[in-house]
Each structure stands twice: as C-alpha cells, then as structure tokens.
C-alpha cells in the first residue's frame, strides 16, 4: 500500500467497524423503541438472559463496559424495574445483578429482533456467522495482545 494511502479514511479498519456499528445500531432502534429500551440496555439484558444473577464486575467484563458506564446503565434498568442490584451476602464489597419478573418477561418480546434487524442487511445467515466469528476473533486477539503488554 502506498504511504499516502495509509491514512485514507476508507482504508482504516477502525473507521469501517465504527461506521458499520453505528448503522447496525440504527437498525435496532425502532425495534428497541417498541420495548422502551436503548441498544446498551438491550445488550445488557441479552447478557443477563444468558446468565442471570451475576456480579456487576462480571457483567462489565462480559459487555466490555467500565463501571463509569455500567453503573448509570444499571441504575436506569433498576428504575425501569427490569433488574435488581443486591449486595452479595458472602462478600459485601460485591454487588450482584439479577433480572426481575418484568426483565424476564421482556425476553419474549425480544425474540424477533435479531431476525427483523438482519433481514435488512441483505447478508445470508452463513455470511453473518462468518463475520461474527471474525469480529470475535479480532476482539480476542486484541485482548490477548493487551494482556501481553501489561505483563511486560
């Protein structure tokens, strides 16, 4: 690649990922509006529907969110009566998050969202699966490199 091409916006992987993520998130908006939740609240609920009653720290790691972002998000979900935060009785320094009945019941209304969103991408299911695998692999590789840097 020519030197001048290195700094072209369209040649940046970071920009392609950023732009695509914004557009995909926009696709979710009308469906999430029907549920009365934001995209970040949705992914938080997805994580809790997958594994409920988890420490806040574990949830933050799963979602790649720091406590400064996660705490207000959880407060809002608690205000909406979708989750409850409780001190861990065995370790009072730890706070656990669990779904309420309302939080569990919202899952039923969310089942159609993935299909409704991805039918708008004009990708075949196999193509989406490969893309998702590549993105997971890239994220994992970045984290492994970060782990190497912090050990040296």
Automatic annotation (TrEMBL):
Residue ranges of the HTH marR-type domain? 10-140
User: Where is this gene product found?
Assistant: Cytoplasm
Q: Where is the signal peptide?
A: none
User: What InterPro entries has UniProt attached to this entry?
Assistant: HTH_MarR-typ, MarR/SlyA-like, Transc_reg_Sar_Rot_HTH, WH-like_DNA-bd_sf, WH_DNA-bd_sf
Taking the first listed entry, what is the main subcellular location of this protein, grouped into a coarse class? cytoplasm
Superkingdom of origin: Bacteria
PANTHER family in alphabetical order: ORGANIC HYDROPEROXIDE RESISTANCE TRANSCRIPTIONAL REGULATOR, TRANSCRIPTIONAL REGULATOR, MARR FAMILY
Q: What is this protein called?
A: MarR family winged helix-turn-helix transcriptional regulator
């Amino acid at each position: 690649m020519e030197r001048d091409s290195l700094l072209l916006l369209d040649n940046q992987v970071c920009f392609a990922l950023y732009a695509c993520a914004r557009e995909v998130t926009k696709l979710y908006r009308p469906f999430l509006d029907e549920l009365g939740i934001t995209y970040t609240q949705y992914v938080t609920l997805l994580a809790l529907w997958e594994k409920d009653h988890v420490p806040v720290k574990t949830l933050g790691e799963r979602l790649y969110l720091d406590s400064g972002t996660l705490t207000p998000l959880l407060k809002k979900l608690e205000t909406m009566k979708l989750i409850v935060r409780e001190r861990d009785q065995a370790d009072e320094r730890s706070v656990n998050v669990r779904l309420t009945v309302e939080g569990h019941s919202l899952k039923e209304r969310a089942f159609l969202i993935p299909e409704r969103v991805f039918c708008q991408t004009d990708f075949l299911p196999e193509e989406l699966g490969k893309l998702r695998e590549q993105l997971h692999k890239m994220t994992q590789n970045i984290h492994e490199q970060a782990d190497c840097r912090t050990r040296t």
